[in-house]
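So, read this over?
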Amino acid sequence: MHLWMDVMRDLEGVMADHERVFDAWAEGGVDGLVIGPLVFNQPKLLKGAKPEPSGHPPTMTYDPDSAVYKRLGVEPPPPPEPMPEKRKLLERTLQAAKERGLTVMIFQAQAGAGPAGPDAGYFGDVRAVAARMVDTLEHYPMADGAIMDGPEWGYEIAPHHMNRRSYILDDLPEHVAPECAKLGYDYGALVVAKDRLCNLLHRLDPRRVRLHAGGGFLGGASLLGNDPDLIAWFRFRVESLSAFLKGVATYLRSEMSCPVRLGVGPRTAAFAPLAGYDFAELATFVDILLPKHYFWHRGFDGLIGTVYRYVETLTEWNPALTDGDALAVVEALFGLKLPGVQDRGDFESALLPEFFERIVTQETRRALAVVDDSERIVPWVDAGRFPHDGDPMSARDLKLLLEASQSAGLTRFLYHHAGNLTAGEWTVMSELCGKRWEPRRSQYAPPDRLVL
């Protein structure tokens, strides 16, 4: 198996010592670097604390090329603070990676887009997003391409969840209406259907759950009221996201001076359709799919935590439902049946060997099914002390996760992220992908920081 390493909030730390770090990573089997967002002085979000101050405001790493934005008809972002020494060091770092034969991908190359970018609402103007990506990749020609983390629609139903942007029932703001019309959907009808879904989820009858939840597609449709406008809402989410990402891909291929690869990071296969991702469609125009192999409890984006929140929320909204009823609803919606989990208490020990054998294998195979080359599926993998603010996943858990993925046909993964890498994780990954790390003999030690 092969490994890419993600360098995120620890940009300056890796830049300052990149020769030694790259040597150690290469020995452990790293053959690719995913780096970004390209922002100096990024605030380090520490677990249980305020962001760690850098002493300087965050700033982008290069001056925008106004010609790129003019060509695409959008306003460029303002130039950042120069910081010439850091800029030179970043370019030396990227060049050193290429000289070692590493694949170099820019993460969130659209970061710092102009006024019409993602911060403008919805997904942002596709031209503004693409212009910024073209500008970034042209400025750093040593990069092989770009990886986008999102955009996506929400897939959580817990209104109290820390990752509020993922709350599905807030997911039809008024500025979506023009895109609905463009794609042939009635915005008002979708809003009403979404509200009906909200009401239905607050009025689930145990008898109907027990009748329909195990009834396949038709049973699941009956459970959700056989609502055609609800199905239309789900389809709009997929079509709108696919159209946006296809637009980005089209601009990259027409505007770049040389070919680049585009990667997109969807949710794991079970949650992907609800978040708006159609793996099969994306595989027709995206070079690399990076599904989230995130499986922890609590925090955000972990599969076990998301299932738990569905159970918790549905039983709070419907006191007559048992945990088993709520789990049946989850299985009907997502096809997930967690081994050994029958009630909320079981989630605390859900990472059984059977979980990796069944769930991780299933999610890996589903992703691989849409591509002709396994190298086009590169899942994000996170574990360690607090993955995405979630419960710890041990080195043993990581080993089981990677072994199950490999047995299912996976040949490459992306570790998120270098700043949080622990000794246990690095030992497991280096042994699987290269030469096992020997701490007493190596000049490198994983940072093991608590940075989101």
Q: What stands out?
A: Residues 419 and 447 are 6 Å apart (CA to CA). The mean pLDDT is 94. The first helix runs from residue 11 to 16. The longest strand covers residues 2-7.
